[in-house]
Amino acid sequence: MGGNTWGRLFRVTTFGESHGRALGAVIDGCPPGLTLNEAYIQEELEKRRPGKALGETPRKEKDKVEILSGVFEGFTTGTPIALVIYNMDVSSSAYEKIREVFRPGHGDFTYYIKYGGFRDYRGGGRSSGRETVARVAAGAVAKRILEEYHIEVTAYTIALGGIEAKKRNLEIIYQNHLFCPDLEAYQKMCEKIEEVKKEGDSLGGVVEVLVKGVPAGLGEPVFDKLEADLGKALLSIGAVKGFEIGEGFRASYLKGSENNDPISSEGFLKNSAGGVLAGISTGQDLIMRVAVKPIPSIRKPQKTINLHKEEVEISIEGRHDISAIPRIVPVISAMVRIVLADHLLRQLSNLAFQKRLKFPEFF
Amino acid sequence: MGGNTWGRLFRVTTFGESHGRALGAVIDGCPPGLTLNEAYIQEELEKRRPGKALGETPRKEKDKVEILSGVFEGFTTGTPIALVIYNMDVSSSAYEKIREVFRPGHGDFTYYIKYGGFRDYRGGGRSSGRETVARVAAGAVAKRILEEYHIEVTAYTIALGGIEAKKRNLEIIYQNHLFCPDLEAYQKMCEKIEEVKKEGDSLGGVVEVLVKGVPAGLGEPVFDKLEADLGKALLSIGAVKGFEIGEGFRASYLKGSENNDPISSEGFLKNSAGGVLAGISTGQDLIMRVAVKPIPSIRKPQKTINLHKEEVEISIEGRHDISAIPRIVPVISAMVRIVLADHLLRQLSNLAFQKRLKFPEFF
Amino acid sequence: MGGNTWGRLFRVTTFGESHGRALGAVIDGCPPGLTLNEAYIQEELEKRRPGKALGETPRKEKDKVEILSGVFEGFTTGTPIALVIYNMDVSSSAYEKIREVFRPGHGDFTYYIKYGGFRDYRGGGRSSGRETVARVAAGAVAKRILEEYHIEVTAYTIALGGIEAKKRNLEIIYQNHLFCPDLEAYQKMCEKIEEVKKEGDSLGGVVEVLVKGVPAGLGEPVFDKLEADLGKALLSIGAVKGFEIGEGFRASYLKGSENNDPISSEGFLKNSAGGVLAGISTGQDLIMRVAVKPIPSIRKPQKTINLHKEEVEISIEGRHDISAIPRIVPVISAMVRIVLADHLLRQLSNLAFQKRLKFPEFF
Amino acid sequence: MGGNTWGRLFRVTTFGESHGRALGAVIDGCPPGLTLNEAYIQEELEKRRPGKALGETPRKEKDKVEILSGVFEGFTTGTPIALVIYNMDVSSSAYEKIREVFRPGHGDFTYYIKYGGFRDYRGGGRSSGRETVARVAAGAVAKRILEEYHIEVTAYTIALGGIEAKKRNLEIIYQNHLFCPDLEAYQKMCEKIEEVKKEGDSLGGVVEVLVKGVPAGLGEPVFDKLEADLGKALLSIGAVKGFEIGEGFRASYLKGSENNDPISSEGFLKNSAGGVLAGISTGQDLIMRVAVKPIPSIRKPQKTINLHKEEVEISIEGRHDISAIPRIVPVISAMVRIVLADHLLRQLSNLAFQKRLKFPEFF
Fold first, then answer.
1. Rg of chain A in Å (alpha carbons)
2. Cα–Cα distance measured from residue A292 to residue A164, given in angstroms and rounded to the nearest whole number
């Protein structure tokens, strides 16, 4: 049991079900003295809101975050920051018919087994993608920490439905609703979405993450390597089925002389490693990619069973996204930020001791 | 700091440097009553020993494991199991010349920065692949736990130096020194190794892991998803740059109707998910793959710098492997076992409470 | 930083400040299938509410708990249970004058130093005794777990202001507002309270805890001994300055032959140990005591300084309790329950493996 | 299961049984650049060695510590420090007769139950006081950390067998084998020991700990209060049955005006709190006390049972200490140091962020 807490020093615990009363997060370990308010967090939440654009569910979610604790007169106090987002206008009657049916590709079956039949079946309950709203809220707090060290995380879509972005024009990613750095690819992706929508099917894709400003020295030897924690954080997002850093899977086809990054007196000469060596950041950009599976909720009829083991056919109606992209993009950024904030604070302890940082004296 | 412990209930802490006095592991949380002895663990260690075959370093390591605690009269006692492997016949003089040089692709630079210049430079110290000997030893203990539940982990090489195995003939993987399930591919891999050896270069590859017998219900919601912990565990191995489960990156090109696994009254009809849904095992086989980068130690000259920031050329002589494969294969199995043992014990607590398991009464 | 989470398998994270928006707790690791509702938790909260009786603050707190997640149709689902208690009708203007003053015996100074001056000074913020409302709410969930195993925790006042209870008549503890098991002592305690109230001073006391029904085998060797975790849990309550189990400090004056508990074929012949041996429960009652310091907020003038290091005299007006007793009593019960629930789940994992508990099979 | 690891950032995992192959500790999270060698650790171990003086077992233990990892050329490297102490010349035949008997006051019964009958019965196995040798070794590493911040921990005996030290002459504590700060009391204690030795009985006592040089700001709110962690650490030592800080149990008899520590512009005017307020150090000395129970192994016959539930009488022969004092004294110091090292590193992270400590730049 458990499993709803992330981190060693910057600790995020999330809670909430898709159609329950509320979702939220408690962040324990945020340092004091940071400016923080609801508007700032809200801005991050807006990024995962369904827009008017193609490919997104028109369901009107009103994700209003409230800060319940840990912030006083506009500044963090070092005590736990509780964030809550109440679920509004959520009609759960639509889910009545899946009460006893295991939707393919969803956690319905595994939750049913794991928890002995006790589960909130509405919209997937805790296993819903909606759970990520709490991650994004917590990620906004991590973002505040990283800002103080000028660490910038950017995530963007490099493939959707088999269409790959050829360019990495990051300036345009907030100008299209798929966070795509290649306008031509974006157009094709939109067409693909429309096409698949008609089929009642869904699409997967690939998201890339670039992190600028990471100091050298983040990450720990052996188990808590930076790439291991990043991998875990991103693989913990429901739709993610793969993770790679630097050359990633391509590295398995390279020779050492091709994959190694030579070093000059000015720094590394390239970045096949993706910004980490032996689990610790090199001071270069972090670069990684995740594979996002197609959303399992599709209108196309599928074979499945109910909890009496009877075979049934299911067609999932309703306003479902065609792809976890683009809504997963800010979730990915949030998780990367949470990982980095934690490792930053861990390494600060190490550094502070190395420098024998003085404690403040009052008397 | 930290980062050398894995697990919540089955906890593994490793220690040791490549050329230090010893390497080892402490396993805290192994249940009592399991048969365990040094021969059993030694057998696992032998799998990562350099053989006479191609592609492996001829250095004679004598990795003799000693059990220091936690086992009494042949049975585990529930108390911590300390395992130690002393480093023998290790000449470190060969490393004198890299004392001040950052080898490309290694952790020399990042360790130097992170730890303020204090590091055991010999053979990479803690960042050496040799660290994994402790993982394999600990993995043997995890294996004993899994055996009681008939869970079987098998890892094998499906690509090396760009040559891909087309078959999955698992019966032959222990009959060739690369753990390759395709004899034809194996032959080509061997040729490739010979060729690259002459060039003074190295090769990467891909390892696949198949787990049979996993009960449904392992893994936790949200952050400690089974695939997230598996991903972290495998990405924590030095040479691993990518991880995927089920269809993995291929899933990003599929439609929902293709990627979803339909269910019949007999069970799941296919296994694109790789044995997990919403982070929890489905009861099907687990299937995952990792990308292994080429070994960074190569004879071919490379550009780098020393710690005075002077540019130097380095050619790494000595008896180095051409690829982390095959020695990484038993390490991968070990890590998967450690993850599964931990999640098994976690879920047992949940199940036991669900069944209101009775405590033994003595009086 | 951090420090707001308790437990390994039954994990409680609390948040909230005395005069902030809300207090609450997230419980991660509560097993599924337990009945739970707000009324049940509310009942526990009522026990720490100020009554009309002597010695308690007449401030009208309306501590209404809301369950935000983890409970569905009246049953726990195994996912995190978020509990929130909004702060109502709280006027903080009374605290304006202590904004810059360090109240003796409070955390004002230490929080000021630790968090670099960023703190919610109102009513002590996070360091207020009010924080314990979240513990009591979480303790109610732990209580549900223990009920399933017939483990019963009872806490009661055995000393207040130097007056000691001579009897242990547990039947009357809910019939007097001080949870005192000795009616005669109770009367004297009430008189003492009245007397000290007039002086503008406050009182400390001693609370004893009795736990019935604890199975043998709870607790872990070495660091996580049952008494160590109980001690930590109770010493983590603001007003507690001492903890002892069994004979406790008296044991230091006994001989081995007096302190050892002989064993017969029917069981232990006495219980000087307080129900634990070598950190593990014996199956006997647990019996422990905590020292509660007098409440630091007193009307009597005290010497202190402000944050400019100027010496000032402070007289703390307002509706303050005379003693942390009785309100601390349900908090103590709550913490003991949280500790026991966690250790119960830990030992269940051990037991389940020992019995090779079968996983449910669906197909 | 588990329970053999202490700490969040400075993490100590211990292993080993009384009569097993070896005992030891792995310290994960020790910062790099500290001088450390075996002689330094050995010096701490010598403090718990049986001397020639009264009251201690004449068994010749040769506790030679070996550093297996984490130290290179005399300096810590930031990687795990493994310490091992092999058990020498240990004859276990003496324990053959207690193989099936539960010794009163020992963990024999509870271990038997908890671990389903699998246990190393020799000398108590893991539950033996000998386990603390690993704590003392680890404590020596913590001591090195504290030395850099001029934090000094001193523990000494203030009561033994009912005889209380009236003085606190700390200069003499290393001049008598009981670490007693009162020479007169020491003489009486020695007489008492002689007397009780003849009776075949044993004695308990009280140890006080004074910590000088603790900066303000150590400790975390709510659960990880400094006194809570100190209490847990000391209560985790087998013989300890009670813990108090500052006035401790005496505080329960004081009034607020007596117990509160007024503050002047020069600092706190007294230290009833024992150096902590709201769980965080005030910058004053820490002062705490623990109750040590009499050693359960006595020659005097005791009633008990064997594992077939047959009643037997047991007289524990052999060379047993009369009291856990003085050997427990360095163990207590070690645990306090381990707690403080962990909290120091935690607070350093907080402070470093508050100061926006810069990361080193290489290029």
1. 21
2. 13
**Residues B1-11: tens digit of each pLDDT:** 789 999 999 99
According to DSSP H, which parts of D95-219 are helical?
108-114, 132-148, 183-199
Name the amino acid, one letter, at C291: A
Other beta carbons within 10 Å of A165: 25
Q: Choose the closest CB to A68 out of C21, C81, C360.
A: C21
Enumerate the β-bridge partners of residue B280.
B277
* Alpha-carbon span B251 to B244, nearest angstrom: 10
Cis peptide leading into residue A50 (ω within 30°): no
Residue of D nearest to A218 (CA): D359
Residues 149-208 of chain B whose Cβ lies under 8 A from any Cβ of chain A:
159, 161-162, 196, 199, 201-206
**pLDDT category, D53, cuts 50, 70, 90?**
very low
Round to whole Å and give the CA distance between D223 and C335. 10
Q: Report the alpha-carbon distance of residue A57 to residue A326 in Å, rounded.
A: 11
How many whole angstroms separate alpha carbon D186 and alpha carbon D174? 12
pLDDT greater than 90 at residue B54: no
* B89-98 CB contacts, 8 Å cutoff, 24+ apart: B89/B60, B89/B62, B90/B18, B90/B19, B90/B123, B92/B19, B92/B122, B92/B123, B94/B317, B94/B318, B95/B19, B95/B121, B95/B122, B95/B123, B98/B314, B98/B316
Query: What is the DSSP code string of C7-69?
Result: -SSSEEEEEE-TTSSEEEEEEE-PPTT-B--HHHHHHHHHHTS--SSTTS--------EEE-S
Distances (CA, A) of C350 to A128, C354, C355, C359: 32, 6, 9, 15
C-alpha distance from residue C95 to each of A68, B46, C130, C317 (Å): 20, 69, 15, 10
Asked if C102 and C306 count as a contact pair (C-beta separation under 8 A), the reply is yes
Distance of CA C145 to the CA centre of its chain: 17
State how far residue A226 is from chain D, nearest Cα, in angstroms: 16
Within 10 angstroms of residue B96's Cβ, the number of other Cβ atoms is: 10
Best CA proximity match to D255, nearest among A223, A162, C322, C257: C322
For residue A72, the chain C residue with the least C-alpha distance is C120
Confidence of residue A48 (pLDDT cuts 50, 70, 90): confident
Q: Could you give the ipTM of this predicted complex?
A: 0.96
How far apart are alpha carbons C223 and D5 in whole angstroms? Answer: 7
- A157 burial (CB, 10 Å; 0-12 / 13-18 / 19+) is buried
Can the peptide bond before residue C326 be classed as cis, meaning omega within 30 degrees of 0?
Answer: yes
Q: Where are the alpha helices (DSSP H) in chain D?
A: 38-47, 108-114, 132-148, 183-199, 226-235, 256-259, 328-354
Superfamily of domain B5-354: Chorismate synthase AroC (3.60.150.10)
Structure-token match 């319905």, residue found: A108
Q: Tell the residue number behind the tokens 């203007």, with chain if given.
A: C93
Query: Are D110 and C202 within 8 A, CB to CB?
Result: no
Residues D226, D219 contacting (CB under 8 angstroms)? yes
| C325 pLDDT tier (thresholds 50, 70, 90) | very high
Around Cβ A362, how many Cβ atoms within 10 Å?
A: 16
Task: Tell me the per-residue pLDDT of B257-282, one tens digit each, with 9 for 90 and over.
Answer: 999 999 999 999 999 999 999 999 99
Neighbours of chain C (3+ CB pairs under 8 A): A, B, D
Return all residues near B178 (Cβ < 8 A) that are at least 6 apart.
B53, B55, B157, B160, B186, B189, B190, B325, B326
Q: What is the pLDDT of residues D223-272, one digit of tens each?
A: 999 999 999 999 999 999 999 999 999 999 999 999 999 999 999 999 99
User: What percent of chain C is predicted at pLDDT more than 90?
Assistant: 90
Closest-CA residue to B321 (of B123, B63, B140, B154)? B123
How far away is chain B from the Cα of C348, in angstroms, using its nearest Cα? 5
d(CA A131, CA A22): 10
